[in-house]
Amino acid sequence: MKRIITGAYLSAVFFIATLPLQAQQKWENVDSAFQPLPNNFHVYKCTDNLDGKPFIAYYAEAVLKDKHLNFTTDTTRGRRITPLQFYVKNDRPLLVVNCSFFSYETNHSLNLVMKDGKILEYNTHTIPMKGKDTFQYKHPTGSALGISKKRKADVAWLFADSTVKYPIAFEWKPELIQDSFTRISKYRFVPELHHLPKVEKGRGIKDKWKMQTAVGGGPVLLQDGQVKITNNEEVRFAGKAIDDKHPRTCMGYTADGRLIIMVIEGRHPGIAEGATLTQQAQLLKDLGCVEALNLDGGGSSCMLINGKETITPSEKGVERPVPAVFIIK
């Protein structure tokens, strides 16, 4: 079929081609402020405006294959302590950063946390609905970033409650189920488990997600190097809240094996106003991440390098106690 090129078409093409592209943020190496640091670990800071608003963020970059670096986690099992207290508790590691969402009532994480190949905290797979749907429940999968024994990172959606020894992973098409049951079985999420591994590749399912270390959060921010935020499937932020600006914590990894851990300062008007989920996803994409995950943010966002704070926490500059952290030693 021959395409007829009109003047209006040419004008539209010219207009799109001349639209200004969003400039990438400028990051400054600030290793000198956090010494001593090992060779394959670096710290960067950005104070550029983000879409015209005041912005402050830091990220740490670690080479996954470096066997001098130990990637691990720690939890407190039913109580919460500050990142600085975790730092002292773990013999002053290189990096401590908050990770999972948590319940103020129980002080337990609401997402997967794994250490030394074992699950320490589980995903919450049942969320009660409100109003006319009081007797209905949503059953989302949760997402997590894991690091294997071979030091390879992966972001996946997981079924991981106390009935399984290893999480069951979806590499794409995360599940959101709604029914009237207060509990849900792994077979409801993954009927294929009855006859794996024959159709294992159908949805990218791994019936045993054997990670040495993993931290959960959500939603997923990047898939295959593109911004694809699975907010609705993971039931993280309702309605327009996906576009709200807040302090953020997030993690991703690059194709050449670098782990990126980022914290974004926020809720400080005129100084640092935070970022939306889409903005932080773009920041991670610009740094070369192929997969990335949002973690608990707001007043929980805090990253320590050799015990020194990076961003200023949003709650009057005071670290919020949390039940779990990601650690690099």
Care to describe what's here?
The chain is mostly beta strands. It has one domain (38-62, 75-304, 313-328). The protein contains 5 helices and 23 strands. The strands form 4 sheets. Strands 1-2-3-19-18-20-16-17 form an 8-stranded antiparallel beta sheet, covered by helices on one side. A 7-stranded antiparallel beta sheet has the order 7-6-15-10-11-12-14, with no helix packed on it. A 5-stranded antiparallel beta sheet has the order 4-23-5-21-22, with helices on one face. The termini are far apart.
List the keywords.
single chain, 329 residues, mainly beta, eight-stranded antiparallel sheet, seven-stranded antiparallel sheet, 5 helices, 11% helix, globular, disordered N terminus
In short:
This protein has 329 residues and is mostly beta strands.
**Roughly what percent helix?**
10-25%
- Radius of gyration equals 21 Å
* Biggest β-sheet: strands ordered side by side in the sheet: 1-2-3-19-18-20-16-17
Q: Total strand count, please?
A: 23
Outline the biggest β-sheet: 8 strands, antiparallel
- Whole-number mean pLDDT: 90
Describe the protein's topology.
Layout: H1 7-17, E1 28-29, E2 41-46, E3 57-63, E4 71-75, H2 83-89, E5 95-98, E6 113-115, E7 118-121, E8 127-128, E9 137-140, E10 142-147, E11 153-159, E12 168-170, E13 176-179, H3 186-189, E14 205-206, E15 213-217, E16 220-223, E17 226-227, H4 231-234, E18 248-254, E19 258-264, H5 277-286, E20 289-295, E21 303-305, E22 308-309, E23 324-328
Antiparallel strand pairs: 1-2, 2-3, 3-19, 4-23, 5-21, 5-23, 6-7, 6-15, 8-9, 9-13, 10-11, 10-15, 11-12, 12-14, 16-17, 16-20, 18-19, 18-20, 21-22
